[in-house]
Write a structure and sequence with these properties.
This protein has a single domain, classed as STAS domain (Transcription Regulator spoIIAA). The protein contains four helices and five strands, in the order E-E-H-E-H-H-E-E-H. A five-stranded mixed beta sheet has the order 1-2-3-4-5.
């Protein structure tokens, strides 16, 4: 698992591992990055399903409850196919834009 920290945001990458093992590793490493906004880059996974995205739901809920952003990045799933509780972006730039918008909403207490 690779962590790329940029200010108060951590981008998480992974290569050559199953998605379930990746999620397990992310949960185990969560305490190290829980105070940052988290972007999970899923581009190294060739095949993803909506069900795969739902595997991140508990972690996403937990992180958002702490007033932090949690965004999954993949262009293999349409954001309209996942529940609103899961933030999904097709590019890293769009993930960063989501975090910026959510920060503004938190500042305005929306």
């Amino acid at each position: 698992m690779i962590f790329d920290k940029d200010g108060n945001t951590t981008i998480v990458y992974q290569e050559n591992i199953s998605l379930l093992k990746f999620i397990e590793n992310l949960q185990n490493a969560y305490d190290k990055i829980r105070n940052d906004h988290i972007v999970v880059n899923l581009f190294s996974f060739n095949r993803l399903t909506v069900g795969d995205m739902l595997e991140f739901l508990d972690l996403s809920r937990k992180h958002k409850k702490a007033n932090k952003s949690f965004v999954l990045v993949t262009d293999k799933i349409d954001y309209e196919d996942v529940p609103e509780e899961i933030s999904l972006a097709p590019t890293l730039q769009e993930a960063m834009d989501i975090i910026e918008m959510e920060d503004i909403e938190r500042d305005l207490e929306l």
